[in-house]
UniProtKB/TrEMBL annotation:
UniProtKB keywords: Membrane, Protein transport, Transmembrane, Transmembrane helix, Transport
Native organism taxonomy: Eukaryota, Viridiplantae, Streptophyta, Embryophyta, Tracheophyta
Organism of origin: Cardamine amara subsp. amara
Residues passing through the membrane, by range: 34-53
Example GO BP: protein transport
Compartments, as annotated in UniProt: Membrane
Family: Belongs to the YOS1 family.
UniProt-recorded name of the protein: Yos1-like protein
InterPro entries: Yos1
Top-rank taxon, per record: Eukaryota
Keyword Nucleotide-binding: no
Membrane keyword on record: yes
Gene Ontology CC terms, in alphabetical order: membrane
Length: 111
């Protein structure tokens, strides 16, 4: 008996439920890479949106700074997790610029 990854089994189950006829699945499976690329670009745009938020002018008046988060001690709350994500995206601005440059060049070359 061979081992099959539970994630692969889950994907096969979804495939059987959504596409009972295998001919239709092959049509949509070829678009899977396009979906993945669109998802990556969407996540990159979201990270860019979080990276450009100004902490002094936008986040501080609303109480969404790391300093206030440390004062209240609510690091594991939903608000704390979002503040941490915003701070991480702002911290990673230079790698985001490099990734944006690579994506722009890739889109220029590939069309």
């Amino acid at each position: 008996m061979s081992y099959v990854c539970p994630f692969i089994e889950f994907l096969n189950l979804i495939r059987q439920l959504c596409f009972p006829d295998s001919d239709h699945f092959e049509l949509y499976a070829s678009q899977g890479t396009m979906f993945f690329w669109t998802l990556i670009k969407g996540l990159l745009l979201f990270a860019n949106a979080l990276a450009i938020l100004n902490e002094d002018r936008f986040l501080a008046p609303r109480g969404w700074t790391l300093g206030e988060l440390h004062q209240t001690g609510r690091k594991n709350s939903a608000k704390g997790q979002i503040i941490g994500l915003i701070h991480a995206c702002q911290y990673m601005r230079f790698p985001l610029m490099l990734i944006n440059t690579v994506v722009i060049l890739w889109k220029l070359v590939s069309g």
